[in-house]
Amino acid sequence: MIIGKVVGTVICTRKNSSLVGSKFLIVDPMEKMEIDGCDRIVAVDDVGAGIGELVLVATGSAARLGCGDPNSPVDACIVGIVDDPQKIVIVE
Amino acid sequence: MIIGKVVGTVICTRKNSSLVGSKFLIVDPMEKMEIDGCDRIVAVDDVGAGIGELVLVATGSAARLGCGDPNSPVDACIVGIVDDPQKIVIVE
Amino acid sequence: MIIGKVVGTVICTRKNSSLVGSKFLIVDPMEKMEIDGCDRIVAVDDVGAGIGELVLVATGSAARLGCGDPNSPVDACIVGIVDDPQKIVIVE
Amino acid sequence: MIIGKVVGTVICTRKNSSLVGSKFLIVDPMEKMEIDGCDRIVAVDDVGAGIGELVLVATGSAARLGCGDPNSPVDACIVGIVDDPQKIVIVE
Amino acid sequence: MIIGKVVGTVICTRKNSSLVGSKFLIVDPMEKMEIDGCDRIVAVDDVGAGIGELVLVATGSAARLGCGDPNSPVDACIVGIVDDPQKIVIVE
After folding, report:
1. Is B34 a residue whose pLDDT tops 80?
2. Residue A48 C-alpha, separation from nearest chain C C-alpha, in angstroms
3. Which of these, E40, B8, B10, lies nearest to D32 by C-alpha position?
4. What angle do CA C37, C42, C46 make, to 5 degrees?
5. E19 φ, ψ to 5°?
6. Which of A17, B88, C37, D65 has its CA 20 to 30 A from that of E4?
7. What is chain A's mean pLDDT, rounded?
8. What is the DSSP string of B20-86?
9. Where does the signal peptide begin and end (chains A, B, C, D, E) (predicted)?
């Protein structure tokens, strides 16, 4: 998983029927956590995240398990909200 | 998922039998959304997208769920069309 | 999927038993279509591609669906041959 | 799999219900083993790893098999602890 | 799949129970075949490869099919040994 910050939203009225009702958030991975060299991804929100929050994002097939519908064409899902960014302990 | 712009099409007469009838569109990911450092991908279209439209693309195993045939050898699928590019709200 | 050009072959006599009979081709992704920043991949051929042809390659779990044996340890498969490279329409 | 060093932890009180009880560790891949050009990932710990230890991390769908719950939205899991970093033999 | 050279080994006494008995080899992808921009990976060996040999490596979910245990948390597996590196024909 990676940690990222919710920076935006995107709306698609025309979409795959199994995505109806999904909330799409735009997430910027934390420094050093860009996935696949990708600086920004669209993730479905499963935990009620809001703009500005730091979140845990699961990608790939794991995302479908996180979004509540295993048959949904989803490849990134917010599965947790980081309690306190200050509490992320990193000892290099 | 990533957001990208449909920039072209490609036609394959000889192809895997489960791909017969699929429409292949070439998509350029939005700035900062290149997947795997890949600046351009071929995606099957599930929602009736056209050249120039901004679309939501699911990749990996999620793509098969998006394209209507879970046994199709597809790794990228257009699953939504962005309503209004101006409405993509990004707060950095 | 990505579009690439078949540039070579590789032979493995000692291999996983479910790969016996598979044809391995070396494919160079088209400009801007490098997958995972990878400039060259080995793909199983499902459609009778030859050296020099432009092909459509599915990667990840999709590749197994493309190669005819869903239990084969294959992560890249040629699933189509591009009709006419000149007909790839790209409108940037 | 890749080899990395456990450098930190992250806590998410609000999270997907199947992640309750999971321990999230932050792992820095060993030199040359960055996955997807990603310099730091969050992995679930399955083997009792601690800060500073060198670990073996499985990613993608393999991670779910490593973390004990195949329905958990997990895409990276620590599946082994390297015995002795000095014993990693590399002959280039 | 990618082609790489076996350059080392790594030992993990404490590991996921389904990995007991697995041999972990460190593989350096061939030039231009780095996966996900990753210059070195740890792969389970299924075909009896040795240090210095050129091997075919399957990644992602395909690796589990290659390593004999579909429930093993493995994301990279050596599935073939290249017959003769001189016979890799590449026509650019």
Report:
1. no
2. 31
3. E40
4. 125
5. -100, -5
6. D65
7. 90
8. TTPPEEEEEEPTT--BTTBS-EEEEESS---TT-EEEEEETHHHHHHSS-TTS--SEEEEEE-S-GG
9. none
Chain A residues near residue E37 by CB distance under 8 angstroms: 37
Chain E residues whose C-beta sits inside 8 Å of any chain A C-beta:
36-37, 61
If you measure CA to CA, which chain E residue comes closest to A38? E36
What are phi and psi for residue E57, nearest 5 degrees?
A: -115, 130
Do A40 and A15 meet the contact criterion of CB atoms below 8 Å apart?
no
Low-confidence stretches of chain D (pLDDT beneath 70)? 34-38, 92
What pLDDT score does A60 carry? 93
How far apart CA A60 and CA A75 sit, in angstroms, is 5
Alpha helices in chain C (DSSP H): 61-66
- Separation between Cα atoms, residue E92 and residue E90, nearest integer Å: 6
Contacts of D59 in chain E (CB under 8 A): 75
Tell me the shortest Cα–Cα distance from E11 to chain C, in angstroms. Answer: 23
- CA distances for A27 relative to B1, B17, B32, angstroms: 11, 37, 11
Q: Tell me: ipTM over 0.85.
A: yes
Judged by CB atoms closer than 8 Å, whether chains meet at A73 and B66 is answered as: yes
Instruction: For chain E, give the mean pLDDT.
Output: 90
Chain C residues touching residue E2 (CB < 8 angstroms) = 38, 41-42
- Token readout for B21 is 């009838």
Q: Which residues of D touch E16 (CB under 8 A)?
A: 46-47, 66, 79-80
Q: How confident is the model at residue B8 (pLDDT cuts 50, 70, 90)?
A: very high
Check CB contact under 8 Å for A61 and D63: no
B56 and B3 in contact (C-beta within 8 Å)? yes
| Contact by Cβ (8 Å): C16, C32 | no
Chains that touch D (3 or more CB pairs under 8 A): A, B, C, E
H-helix or E-strand spanning residue E6: strand E2-9
Shortest distance, CA A37 to any CA of chain E (angstroms) = 9
Domain E2-87 has CATH 2.40.50.220: yes
Going by C-beta distance under 8 Å and a sequence separation of 6 or more, which residues neighbour residue E36?
A36, B36, C36, C37, C38, D35, D36, D37
